[in-house]
């Protein structure tokens, strides 16, 4: 048999095993192997071959009027491929008991920037006197049920911000990777919410404060990964398993959220007025199933 014919026969054999056309499937390796029917992938590197786009950092947002008027950066962030999968958030949250500083998300804190001869996505938080101008991206999908989420990221800036990559349904179905800029640069937080009980006491198994393996620090590029399967959450860093939890593994269809925020509270810490923090992302991949049959 010539090789072309062999390929055709093999393809026919594979096709015969599926009822209709074979759906794509994505297998994960590691201690939580699974197969997922769907994939979202965005690579923010090398988006500016001419070197003419995405030059500077957009101006910091210093008023609510600027925040409301800010458009989404033209280019990749307005492309069909990006808009299909992600929504840049513009909501805000008021001061509350453990959030002494108001928070307002803005289009202008999510942008592509050129550095180190490449490009990457940036989420920024900037502290004003009376509010923190923050950044958030949510998947358009809110029916993700089990996923392997991977991204390559680094964080720098003022020690009063929280960079989050997480699944979200509500505050009892939420699985988090968080980098607190007030932490030492080799510490990460992995949490399945709720982190506190109804009396406000911390639940010890909910949140882990981990030392990043292999001498890694979050100010440099690292590959973060959260595998959410039925009854098990597993966190990896640069391919190495770091933490597993069976406590409060989310059961509800969820969104995936990336954000960088601060509210002056005890978790994020308090940013200095006039200071900024940055979450930079080279790529993100989400292998997932949905709650739809
Ligand atoms: C995802 O769905 C496929 C069927 O489309 C199934 O074979 C697979 O086991 C599911 N993966 C997980 C992690 O539930
Ligand atoms: C935003 O604020 C930070 C912190 O003060 C500063 O380093 C940065 O240059 C500012 N960005 C712009 C575009 O001015
Ligand atoms: C998730 O939400 C469901 C429905 O509200 C709730 O019953 C459950 O306790 C929540 N948490 C987990 C981990 O399932």
Description of the structure:
With 293 residues, the protein is mainly beta. It has helices at residues 3-16, 64-69, 80-85; strands at 26-27, 35-36, 38-43, 86-88, 92-93, 102-105, 110-115, 118-127, 131-139, 144-157, 162-170, 173-180, 187-192, 207-211, 222-229, 232-237, 240-245, 255-261, 276-290. The chain has one domain: Jelly Rolls (Sandwich). The strands form 2 sheets. It has a 17-stranded mixed beta sheet that branches. Residues 4-16 have low confidence and may be disordered. The chain binds 2-acetamido-2-deoxy-beta-D-glucopyranose (3 copies). One 2-acetamido-2-deoxy-beta-D-glucopyranose binds next to loops.
Please give a handful of descriptors for the protein shown.
293 residues; mainly beta; Jelly Rolls; 17-stranded mixed sheet; two-stranded antiparallel sheet; 3 helices; 19 strands; 44% strand; binds 2-acetamido-2-deoxy-beta-D-glucopyranose
Query: From N to C, what is the helix and strand string?
Result: HEEEHHEEEEEEEEEEEEEEEE
Secondary structure tally, helices: 3
Q: Which ligands appear in the coordinates? A: 2-acetamido-2-deoxy-beta-D-glucopyranose
What about the largest sheet? 17 strands, mixed
Instruction: Estimate percent helicity.
Output: under 10%
Broad structural category: mainly beta
According to CATH, what is the topology?
Jelly Rolls
- Low-confidence stretches are 4-16
Summarize model confidence as the mean pLDDT. Answer: 92
Instruction: Please give the CATH architecture.
Output: Sandwich
Overall outline: globular
Q: Report the radius of gyration as a whole number of Å.
A: 20 Å
SS strand fraction:
35-45%
Just give the CATH class: Mainly Beta
Number of domains: 1
Overall number of strands: 19
Report how far the terminal alpha carbons are from each other: 40 Å
